[in-house]
Amino acid sequence: MNIRIALSLVTAAALALLMASAQAVEVAVDAGLEDAGINGIPQNPDPQVVGWNCFPQSGANTCGTTTENVFAGQHSGQLTTNALASANLLKHGFVGQGVVAPDSAITVSFWARGTGEIGGVAFAELFSEIAGGGVSASEILGGAPLQAQGLSADWTQFTFMTTTGSDVSGGVTVQFNAATGGADGSFSELFIDNLSIDVTPIPVPAAVWLFGSALGLLGWVRRNGR
Length: 226
Hints:
The protein is of the alpha+beta class. Helices cover about 20% and strands about 35% of the residues. It has two domains: about 1-20 and about 205-225; about 25-200, Sandwich (Jelly Rolls).
């Protein structure tokens, strides 16, 4: 086998390895909230903990898992917000550390059902986390409350495709927010199940090195007429 054919084969193999490493991977932890439902979602834990965490911002609000109103399995996440002008947060935080690549495609999908009264709304939000604190990007998925995107009393699947921030050294966080307005009677309730977070992984270093080396050698051969 001559050197050009060999190098072409190496280049093709390296490119195939790079393409394989760029396939989206699932980074959600306990996506159906089955383990969280069994063990309970902790109240106001360390925000750097990977997994599901609750942050109800009033004692009148409840956040956790339920065995009622479940889409699949035995448990779903539930946010019930009764306090006025209050946020109630369920976070799936800091997942995909060391895997998710910066400035890359991410798809967030989940099933939800919910209601809101007198200014009560629900949001799904995405944060690109920086290790040690802070975010490089944040957005409301879909750019509007879930009610404006089809949320109803029936289970509905939501899917959002977007891009991670420039620094995702701390992974990514998907946050669900059931919030109320300031008027009397404002109320918001949200149920979440079967979350999926698909991200483009950081390329395999060996594949990057092999691909670059093969291209360099192929260029050398062409320049030197080998």
